[in-house]
Design brief:
Bound molecules: NADP nicotinamide-adenine-dinucleotide phosphate
Largest sheet: 6 strands, parallel
Number of strands: 11
Number of helices: 10
Radius of gyration: 19 Å
Helix content: 25-40%
Strand order of the largest sheet: 1-11-8-7-5-6
Structural class: alpha/beta
Strand content: 15-25%
Order of helices and strands: EHEHEHEHHHEHEHEEEEHEH
Oligomer: single chain
Shape: globular
Length: about 290
């Protein structure tokens, strides 16, 4: 079987267009524009590009941007104070602290003080707890993007065998929780899983979020499976995923490429989360 390729770029564009429309309707109803505050500490060029991309995408859909850039020698206390200030600012619907932060700033601890109602990255312990309990909340953007790709391709998750390779707080664990919420039978694998190949061969839906180029071989993929590759690895051959794409595409029914699969979904879901946060703060139903 030659797999159909999931076009993450096109789906992300659709999500962004939908958010733009919903923001316009929100403004017409007399609400203030949703606002996204990004906080970047230091001058790491890659992080600067990521934050710039998030702010540009926000502006395109009518979200107001608050782009805070602190010098590389900013103290932990300064970032802490800024995050609290943004938490109190009614113009700010969502707050994103770009990680990693310089050594003297404990990014993990600071994530925990972000107001959960403004946690558009979905990474605070409150958001993680709501997800674990199956309660409404702001979901981490990349995992939410994975589910959106599956939804837009009508992939049946109820009762499906889903295998997630990777158990990070950022991707693996939240993806697994989201799949479980859709009634999939979920197996989470990690570096100490025995016979990873055999576990992967069970999967109707196989998600790879590891950070190792082509770890998942083509013959680990069940005939007709759906394969979602979250990995982004910089190699001499350019950007590659965690799945041997050519081998997997011979057996899968649907597969994401790298780049152009999951990657573009992250910013799209951040925009959606920012609008959801604005609705929530205005006391409107946020989850439909
Ligand atoms: P991470 O925190 O490094 O976690 C990697 C996970 O893979 C860990 O749970 C680790 O297991 C597991 N692992 C490592 N080697 C393994 C092996 N040989 N067999 C099975 N499992 C193994 O990485 P992450 O933040 O989740 O990111 C994963 C990948 O997704 C990276 O390539 C990253 O760049 C990419 N990513 C993409 C996006 C996007 O598309 N926008 C967003 C986030 C991340 P242990 O827990 O046992 O160590």
């Amino acid at each position: 079987m030659a797999a159909e390729i999931i076009d993450g770029k096109a789906i992300a564009q659709q999500v962004r267009a939908e958010v733009a429309e919903e923001v316009a309707t929100w403004l017409e109803a007399g609400h203030p524009a949703p606002g996204l505050a990004t906080v970047l500490v230091g001058d790491d060029p890659a992080s600067g590009v990521y934050v710039g991309g998030k702010q540009k995408a926000s502006a395109e859909v009518g979200i107001e941007g608050f782009d805070h850039r602190l010098s590389a020698d900013a103290t932990h206390a300064q970032v802490d104070a800024l995050l609290r200030e943004l938490g109190d600012d009614p113009r700010v619907s969502g707050i994103l602290l770009q990680l990693p932060t310089p050594e003297q700033v404990d990014g993990g601890a600071l994530t925990e003080i972000i107001d959960p109602s403004k946690d558009v990255d979905g990474l605070t312990p409150i958001s993680a707890g709501l997800l674990a309990k199956g309660r409404p909340g702001l979901r981490p953007c990349t995992p939410a993007g994975v589910l959106e790709l599956l939804r837009r391709h009508d992939v049946e998750l109820q009762g499906a065998e889903a295998v997630v390779v990777g158990r990070s707080d950022l991707v693996g664990k939240p993806v697994a929780a989201l799949l479980l919420a859709q009634h999939a039978t979920v197996t989470i694998c990690h570096s100490r899983t025995r016979d990873l190949a055999e576990v992967c061969r069970r999967a109707d839906v196989l998600i790879a979020a590891v950070g190792k180029p082509a770890l998942v071989r083509g013959d680990w993929v069940k005939e007709g499976a759906v394969v979602i590759d979250v990995g982004i690895n910089r190699t001499d051959a350019g950007l590659t995923g965690d799945v041997d794409f050519d081998g997997a595409a011979e057996r899968a029914r649907l597969i994401t490429p790298v780049p152009g699969g999951v990657g573009p979904m992250t910013i799209a879901m951040l925009l959606r989360n920012t609008l959801t946060a604005a609705r929530m703060q205005a006391g409107e139903p946020a989850w439909t």
